[in-house]
Amino acid sequence: MYINDWIAKPEKIEFLPYGFGGLSADTIARDLKFRAGFGARYYFNYENILDFALLPDFSQIETDMPQIDVNAISALYYQEKRPFFTERKSFFETPLEVFYSRMINDPLFAIKYAGSIKDNSFGYIFAIDQHSPFIIPFRERSFNIVSDKYSSCNVLRVKKSLLLDTYLGLTTTDREILDGGFNRVFGLDGGFGFWGKNTVKYQALLSWTKEPFDTLLFNGFGIEFDGKTARFDAEEFTGNGILFEFNHNRKYFNFTGYLKSLSPGFRADQGYIGYNDYTKYGALFKFPYVIKKSLLYAVTPELKLEWLHRYWGENTGFVRGGSLTLQCKYSVSAQFSYQLVDKFYRDNWFNGLWTYSGNLSSYALKFWTYGLFLNYGREINYYSFPLSLGYSLYPYFWTEFHLGDLSARFEHYRYLFWAERFGEWIYDQKTYGTNLSYAFTRIMGVRVICQYNSGLKNLLINPLFSFTPTPLTIFYFGSNHNFSNEAPLDFRSYEHTGSQVFLKVQYLFRH
Questions:
Q1: 96: which DSSP letter?
Q2: Which DSSP letter does residue 90 get?
């Protein structure tokens, strides 16, 4: 008997309808909502799968951990959690992230094909997005905007494996705003190895953009680039970008050299591009040494050098730094680093910006894991006028417990910024997040998520009961409750601002 006879063949078609009903209430009114949709999957074979979704529901069950956004000049990045996009995500990945699936925000419907034939892999996504977001990059900052504009989205990824460690890839993305405007990206990338210890990775990109005509959506804040205005005034422009990376890896020495460059007009409206109008090149040296004695398993010193320029133009910065990574037995690791930066920002040079950071994580115990990160530095107050310097402290802590059928996770971020060292703070933002879950049986359980963000002064409590006889056949009954308060620990003074109770049923049919 062949091994394939032991593997159950997949069903040819899976059909996954769902229904969602919810009652929302705030301080003004109540609203009863119902939404239905479905997903479907067709298996050509184990390697080639076609997914389809109509009015997929992504919103009520999963929540994003709140992020620190004060004194930030780059658009926030959120991890993808929606199964439609996370499954076979690697088919669409490229060195520079010209496809970031969170940019398909609220699809009316979507189609995805991912598969491979011999040495060729293919990925394609088409979607109609009902609320198209924008990440608008410039040389010194980027803007994240959510809109109510409809758009059609196309993403194509083709990758061919040639020899061992050698591949060639093609990526195209196209987003057409239905009331005017588009962004199209074409890219080639690849990699190869030679002489056993060396690898090369490269990517070349071209973009063509026509802005929508909607200056109320984005007024540009007086920014200009390449003779164009930043506001959405239907201007048309092109851009390009390159990436080249060389790696040399030996037992006691690793070297990485890289070059990245994006022109002022480069946009990838379906990707995550935090900045453009830059050319940067640098080198990273690592010296790993395995000890295997006592509690210490390995030590890795590291040195980093990076030069920053405007797009093939004048110098805008120099970064140098080093770190020491300690890997211990029992899955405990620690890292300590130092970085010194000279930076040109808004026509001013800021020299000697420094950062000390350290992190510690432990997975030694199955029932308890934890991690701690701490960053202390001298940095720019980007929103002061005139620009000024200050001191920042950024701690982050997380821990998880698993006691039988009970699981708990706690996270805490905080960002503090002072004009004078540990004086009166200018910024103080903190977030808390907890996730408690208990499994009554393998298919039935409860979960409660609590999140607080001092920037929004918002507390979210989200209890949920789940019954999942199969991974795709589900029954959810839950609610979302929002409260507002200046002081996170003064529970008596919270003001209730809204609630939603919902029921979601989803059943998997196979044929």
A1: S
A2: G
Give kind and range of the element (H or E) at residue 280: strand 278-286
Q: Are strands 296-309 and 278-286 parallel, antiparallel or unpaired?
A: antiparallel
Q: Give me the tens of pLDDT residue by residue for the chain, a chain 511 residues long.
A: 333 433 345 558 888 787 766 666 565 667 777 778 888 889 988 889 999 999 876 655 667 777 888 999 999 898 888 888 988 999 999 999 999 999 999 999 999 999 999 899 999 999 999 999 999 999 999 999 999 999 999 999 999 998 878 999 999 999 999 999 999 999 999 999 998 899 999 999 999 999 999 999 999 999 999 999 999 999 999 999 999 999 999 999 999 999 999 999 999 999 999 999 999 999 999 999 998 777 888 999 999 999 999 999 999 999 999 999 999 988 899 999 999 999 999 999 999 999 999 999 999 888 999 999 999 999 999 999 899 999 999 999 999 999 999 999 999 999 999 999 888 899 999 999 999 999 999 999 999 999 998 888 888 999 999 998 887 788 888 888 888 876 656 666 778 888 888 787 878 777 7
User: How far is 281 from 265, CA to CA, in rounded Å?
Assistant: 20
Residue type, 168: L
Give the global pTM. 0.90
| 131 Cβ neighbours under 8 A, 6+ residues apart | 105, 106, 146, 147, 148, 149
SS (H, E, C) 352-382: EEEEEEEEEEEEEECCEEEEEEEEEEEEEEC
Q: What is the 3-state secondary structure (H, E, C) of 403-455?
A: ECCEEEEEEEEEEEEECCCCCCEEEEEEEEEEEEEEECCCCEEEEEEEEEECC
For 255, the token pair is 């070297």
- For the chain, the maximum distance between any two Cα atoms, rounded to a whole number of angstroms, is 77
SS3 of 17-73: the string is EEEEEEEEEECCCEEEEEEEEEEEEEECCCCCEEEEEECCCCCCCCCCCCCCCCCCC
Distance CA 58, CA 51 (A): 16
Q: Please say whether the beta carbons of 468 and 502 come within 8 A.
A: no
| Rounded-to-integer distance, Cα 135 and Cα 371, Å | 31
Lookup: tokens for 193: 């190895």
Question: CA dist 468 to 39, 54, 205, 284, 408, Å?
Answer: 17, 22, 44, 47, 20
Written as six digits, the tokens of 13 are 């078609």
- Look at the alpha carbons of 405, 398, 464, 471 in this order and tell me if their dihedral is positive or negative: negative
Whether the link from the prior residue into 288 is cis, omega within 30° of 0, is no
Angle (nearest 5°) at CA 168 between 243 and 51: 105
